[in-house]
Amino acid sequence: MNEANTRRRLLVIGAIVVALFTGLLTRLWFLQVSGGEKLAVQAQQNRDRIVQVPSLRGAIYDRNGTILAKNVPVTTLTLSRQNLTPADRIVLENSLSNLLGKSPTDIGQMLDDPSVSQYAPLPLMKDVPLATAVYVAEHRDQFPQVSITTTSIRQYTAAGIAAANLLGYTGAVSPEDLKTHAGEGYANDDRIGKTGIEQVFETELRGEPGIDKVQVDSRGRATNTITEKKPQSGHDLQLTIDAGVQQIAAESLQQGMDGARTLVDPDNGNYYPATGGSVIVIDARTGSLVAMASGPSWDPNAFITGNAAEYDQYIKDPAHPLLDKGLSPYAPGSTFKLFSAIAGLESGIITPETSVYDDGCIELGNQKFCNARKESYGYVSLAHALTVSSDIYFYSLGNDLWRTYYKSVADGGEDGDKGTSHPIGYAIQNTARDYGMDQPTGVALPGDQSGRIPDLAFNQALNKTSSDPFSRTWRRGDSANLAVGQGDVLVTPLQLANGYATFANGGTLYTPRVVSAVLNSAAGLDAGQLGSVEHTIDPQVKHSVSLPAEVRNPIIEGLDGVTHSGTAAGSFSDYSGPFHVIGKTGTAEAGSKANTSWFAAILNPENDPAQPQYVVLAMVEEGGFGANVAAPIVRRVVDYLSDPTVAPAPVHIAPATAAEQSF
Fold it and tell me: Facing residues of 585 across strands?
């Protein structure tokens, strides 16, 4: 009996052993045969690490091939972290602390930077001075796993710095950038265009990053690197900007701002602060920007080299140097009279011969409006009103337009202050919008603003909660102020320059153009050579406006008087260059701030095909009278355009005469 039980137990144990071996053999068969290929792939993947290799960013050139932004080779200290032992790390933290002037804690955080792959070289210091590189090379024991290599950084030339507001700068990719560009292959340690052309044309400039496959051992140490995909350089850009004109524009703006600060504001006895400004040169025939300077100036290289002190200075500066003043809205003052004159003539409210008696002030309804310093000019026609900048003439025009186009629904009378005004049409508003105001210009730059052309709808929206129902009407004073470029009207310098260009060329409104072509990379070509054209960006017409000679000619006559006998004669009466120069001054009130100084000039108003046709505009915030700050700035730019081979004289700023003190 015992023997039988023993046999049964042995049979059961044997069966269990056989079952276990069968299961084990089945598993071995699966691992070796059935799942071997899959597991081999997984094993290979466990050995491989993918590292993205940055591409070379495209260069930026001016219209003549002058380099504005490029990549330059620099000496760089990099660290290989795979073989860095704890003991080596302690030595390195102390050595780098002394070398870089940072605390060991800061150095430790830098060594653990998660934005850079553990299998890619970690940049420790770029643009390393020669003495520093020699010191590291001679003290290898103090800098374990540190290599001295060559990488590239973005560099903006002197010509590029003068166009910093246009070019923008590049910076480290942020979490917001990664969200915006999700799926586009950006890594945490990439650089990306942050503002300006660098931002708008990021896709063209960036290129395509390469891919390296790094093989690692069981301890995670790199053993081999295989290039899977070589990086492709980004496209180059060619701008419409002329570097020479851009530099003169930037210099002239700075000289004008400096000069304005030596003048005393007659309204309060203080010096003009001249906090910022813009100078724009636009080719009226194509809408191409030849120059667009903004002040105060700034150096985009500070954002590349990581100059924290300089960066903080720009950010904290109350003058906001990083804000492009050419795209910022301001009251245009008397420079807006060009569009009021067009509206008056086209609507039939005035003719070129319409005369208004200007004794320095005029009463409209229950309000009194005056010229600057209450200067009187006697009887003035349209042309003479533009020449001397008679506000009274244009206040009267605004009032006549209001009386004609804004009748009271409440009592059928002419005084819209007594009832709810009913807009039948907006002559000045419609003209301003036809010439590009109240809407972004469409220029390929970030920050392109709409400005504002006020009307009934604006007043209703602005004052919808006001207890005064008349504030929600379009009143006599609103129309009068609009006619002289005051009140609630706001335009950007670029809008105003483009509007003048539309008038100059006979009525074609262009989208301002800043980039003319996308080029294939010139990397590898001889110095000075540009890459082949990938595609061009041609001038783009927005629309055309009717501008008959009977409207255009009397206005040209008045603008011609401005530079020869009127408010800007002090800057242009002695001009003897090849261009016929006409223009308009403007001195815009800005609330509690000092007046904004404006001048817009048209070169070659006849549109002689043998000459280029330019509009040159200058604006200085809190700079005072247009005639004695903005006009001299424009004169210097015009001198350079007249003969680029001769250095123009410095901007000459002198106190305004009585004739120049016009709004």
Answer: 599
Residue 228's H or E segment, with its range, is: strand 222-229
**Which residues have C-beta within 8 Å of that of residue 361, sequence separation ≥ 6?**
368, 369, 370, 371, 374, 392
**How much of the chain, in percent, has pLDDT values that exceed 90?**
61
CA 493 centroid distance within chain: 13
State pLDDT tens for residues 502-556.
Answer: 999 999 999 999 999 999 998 777 777 899 999 999 999 999 999 999 999 999 9
Question: Is residue 440 exposed (0-12), middle (13-18) or buried (19+ Cβ within 10 Å)?
Answer: middle
The pLDDT tens digits for 456-467 are 899 999 999 999
Amino acid in position 367: Q
What single letter denotes the amino acid at residue 347? S
Q: Give me the helices (H) in 565-597, please.
A: 569-572
- 201 burial type by CB count under 10 A (0-12 exposed, 13-18 middle, 19+ buried): buried
Give this prediction's pTM.
0.85
Under 8 Å between Cβ of 266 and 594: no
CA 335 to chain centroid: 23
Helical segments of 549-604, H only: 549-564, 569-572
- DSSP H helical ranges for 76-162: 86-100, 104-111, 130-138, 158-161
Cβ atoms of residues 377 and 361 within 8 Å: no
Where residue 227 falls among pLDDT bands split at 50, 70, 90? low
Strand pairing report for 222-229 and 236-239? unpaired
Distance CA 657, CA 654 (A): 9
Q: How many CB atoms lie within 10 A of CB 617?
A: 32
Task: Read off the tokens for 70.
Answer: 């490029």
Angstrom distance (rounded) from CA 630 to CA 635: 9
